[in-house]
Amino acid sequence: MKKTILSAAIGAAAIAATAPAASATTLETVKAKGFLQCVVNSGLAGFAQPDAAGNWNGFDVDYCRAVASAIFNDPTKVKFTPTTAQTRFPALQSGEGDVL
After folding, report:
1. Statement: residue 16 has pLDDT above 60
2. Average pLDDT of the chain?
3. Rg of the chain's alpha carbons, rounded to an integer?
4. Dmax over Cα atoms in the chain, in whole Å?
5. Closest Cα to residue 99, out of 72, 65, 74, 76?
6. Using CB atoms within 10 A of its CB, is residue 82 exposed (0-12), middle (13-18) or buried (19+)?
7. Helix (H) or strand (E) holding 8
8. Cα(25)–Cα(85) distance, rounded to whole angstroms?
């Protein structure tokens, strides 16, 4: 029992130690590209949908623009990758996007 708890604690510590490094790498990559690639679920009205002119609107879109504004001081430095509920996490994990 004690070995299981110790193993779990060591595993959690290892994961926690690598998390900041992964985040820093993503941020550095985004800054180097000059824009934020945002994975959005285009199947949910109110979250991410382009209008007739191709301008994206919705909650997820606003969130991504806020993140771009925090990084670049410019909410327009964001590009959107439309996905479905089933493909959005694989798209993020494969590097097609920087944030959901």
Report:
1. no
2. 82
3. 17
4. 61
5. 65
6. middle
7. helix 2-33
8. 26
Question: E strands of 1-100, at which residues?
Answer: 36-41, 49-50, 56-57, 78-83
Reduce the DSSP state of residue 6 to 3 states and report it: helix
CA 99 vs CA 11, 22, 30, 52: distances in Å: 25, 13, 10, 25
**For residue 54, is it left (φ>0), alpha (ψ between -120 and 50) or beta?**
left
Place of tokens 């909650």: 59
Query: Mean of the pLDDT values across residues 54-83?
Result: 95
pTM for the structure as a whole: 0.72
Contact 26, 38 (CB under 8 A): no
